[in-house]
Amino acid sequence: MKNTALFLILRRMRAPLLMLIAAYAVSILGLVIIPGVDADGLPQQLGFFHAFYIITYTATTTGFGELPGPFSDAQRLWITISLYISVIAWLYAIGALITMLRDSALRQLISQNRFAGQVRRLNDPFHIICGYGDTGSVVVKSMIDNKLAVVVIERDQERLNELMLENLPVHVPALCGDASLPGNLIMAGLKQPYCCGILALCRDDQVNLKIAITGRLLNPGIKVVSRAQTHDTEDNLASFGTDAIINPFDTFADRLALALHSPDMHMIYEWLKAIPGTPLPERLNPPHGTWVLCGYGRFGKAVQHSLELEHLSTVIIENDPEKTQAPKNVIVGRGTEAVTLKAARIEKAVGIVAGTDDDANNLSIIVTARELNPKLFLVARQNDRDNDALFEAARLDLVMQRSRVLSRQILALIAVPLLSDFLALARKQNKEWAQGLIDYLRPVLGGVAPDLWTVTVTKEESPAVEEWRESGKKFSLLHLLQDPYDREQRLQCIPLLLQRGKDRQLLPSEDLEIQVGDGILFCGRDGVAARQFRTLHNRQIIHYLVTGETLPEGIVWRRFVARKN
Amino acid sequence: MNIEKVIFSFFIVLALTLNFGFFLGESDNPNHHNVYEFFAVLVVNLIATVLKFGERTQTGAVLLATSLVADLELIAAAFVWTYAANISGTGVTPEVMGTIISLAGGALVANIVSVVLLVLEISAQRR
């Protein structure tokens, strides 16, 4: 119920308030009845008004003295008694109020009410993010950078305190509670028309499952994205139609396989998924040969699978072969000692993957392995985000950080949905195509990771194009690539993908005529999207871009030109 | 038997009867209306209001509303009385008494509504 907190306050204030009323009533009544004396020493009784006045200043222990006139001794006695009664009543009332406001249950109720109110007032499309851990925090920050509204549910109050200290440019409504409870998800706006997606990013797979199925059932229209640690969970999530399931280990292993298979294609992935404005990631050239895998957990298995797909041989080092169901020829040990690594013939290997679930061990493996074989390609798994500095100092070729892998994958899905389509199509192309695209992208991007955006040709998003086309004239993709201020100049951007109905067209050609409903994915430099926005909204600019002549603006000037002709 | 209900019923009926007692008499004759009785009406009404705080039922909410109406009118009457007796210097004239009694009459109606609601609620839960 909406006003539960208010009802609770009122209910608990009953006793203190009754006590106050009773104390005042008795004191006032007594003061009115007890005889006093006037200035001439004659008997005189106080009225209710004066009695109320005296008790008011006495009860608050203001102590004005004997006002409105000197009291009789009987009155003095009664006022003394009243003072004790009423002060105790006040202390009780104030004490009760303060105790109540400090009560954690009530405070939680109040914060829940506030959260529900903030969510109700949201009038932009928003996503619900369940779990504000390492991944959640990166996702929230990047989504806000992409101007997407979010609502956060997190069980741990300490994590939420960090959210408050994050100093984000917009306020993020956050609820401290269990996201697997449907009531909390509904409070977070699951059933609201503006809710467009729910992201289950908790540590616990079971919780993520519950969130995903709640989202699916209570609001079938929204996008459900979940992270999964095991293949069991993945299958389960897929069974009820979760839109995207992200397994950080598989994603990373898949990327590694891609880098082994086609470094150029891997670079395209990295470029397009990098955080806009950061330097472009460099080319990664993992060597072909025998790889040593330390740790055969979920991560180790995923990497081994990928390497096998690329027909590379692997040597596995695992401390607990029974538990992890490692193959027979596994080398038992942690990999942190030189003996184990030598047994795995590290001097003959080309790369090593330190994939245990302990950061200290992983770093130790890397350092030892490098001493034994300085030419190794070093890959390590980083479990804790706090160890960033250590992993950076270790100068690794590739670091697998779960939250980073997850957050980049999720952002690509949520912020630029067409990017996934593009990458899926691109992957089917050959190495030469990838090489060509790299050469095409490099000069346009200028060494900085690009912005990605989607232009949709609809009446709302691009009214000028719509108007132009309605007048029967053609509008081709070329015009979106021209600078609206100087049609001879090109904007620093590239159309990556055209979406037309169910069709997807890679790298659409410039003379392609644009139709209503088209979605075009662009990548380009910072600020280009804003220029394109002008073209999409201004008919004069479109006229200029298509014909090369500037239309007179304003009524007077237009008439003047018309008469002249 | 619910002791909370008994206490509340007691105060709400007491408020009504006291209010009625004060209201009784010629409306412009200050001799017919006792200031002590008025004080009692005001205090009992305040208590009845506080007793309804935090009630989450529909009837409870309406009862709280009627009590608040009665309080408001009685406090207004108390102000009129105080002003006439202590500040204006005219004393409690028949005209002033008339005003006080009409305000108290308003509060009386609110109290009647309260009691009627109470009776209805009780008769609804026949056990």
Ordered list of secondary-structure elements with their pairings:
The complex is a heterodimer of chains A (565) and B (127).
Chain A: H1 4-33, E1 36-37, E2 43-44, H2 48-59, H3 73-102, H4 104-121, E3 126-130, H5 134-145, E4 149-154, H6 157-165, E5 174-176, H7 182-187, E6 195-200, H8 205-218, E7 223-227, H9 231-239, E8 244-246, H10 248-261, H11 263-273, E9 291-294, H12 298-309, E10 314-318, H13 321-324, E11 331-332, H14 338-343, E12 351-354, H15 359-372, E13 377-382, H16 388-393, E14 398-401, H17 402-414, H18 417-427, H19 431-445, E15 451-456, H20 463-470, H21 478-481, E16 482-483, E17 486-490, E18 493-500, E19 503-506, E20 519-524, H22 528-537, H23 539-547, H24 555-564
Parallel strand pairs in A: 3-4, 3-6, 4-5, 6-7, 7-8, 9-10, 9-12, 10-11, 12-13, 13-14
Antiparallel strand pairs in A: 1-2, 15-20, 16-17, 18-19, 18-20
Helix pairs in contact in A: 1-2, 1-3, 1-4, 2-3, 5-17, 10-11, 10-12, 10-17, 11-19
Chain B: H1 3-23, H2 35-51, H3 58-87, H4 94-124
